[in-house]
Design a protein that fits this description.
Helix content is 82%, strand content 0%. By secondary structure, the chain is mainly alpha-helical.
């Protein structure tokens, strides 16, 4: 269950990271409220997951999910670069997340 909670926390991290773009420096009310809510949910769920998971593993996977998801959405939503080094780097992060999951005792 902790891994599922961590996954949801990571998805919320993607939500708030992308949401920051839409807040326009927190000058737009609705995106700012949604982004703030996603931040709170993400951190709370991370904290719940870390009751069971090792902190190093949990935090690294959480940030990895956020980094990969945000980079991929940046490509699709904002036309960010899709060159080979960038995609390979995203792949390395995914490999790290998988490696941490596979080597976790929980």
């Amino acid at each position: 269950m902790a891994w599922l909670i961590l996954l949801i926390a990571g998805l919320c991290e993607i939500g708030w990271a992308i949401g920051l773009k839409y807040t326009e420096g927190f000058t737009r009310l609705t995106p700012s409220i949604l982004t703030g809510g996603a931040m709170i949910v993400s951190i709370v769920l991370l904290g719940i997951a870390l009751k069971t998971l090792p902190v190093g593993t949990g935090y690294a996977v959480w940030t990895g999910i956020g980094a990969v998801g945000t980079a991929i959405l940046g490509i699709f939503l904002f036309g960010e670069a899709t060159d080979l080094p960038r995609l390979a780097s995203i792949g390395l992060i995914v490999a790290g997340i998988i490696g941490l999951k596979l080597t976790s005792a929980v």
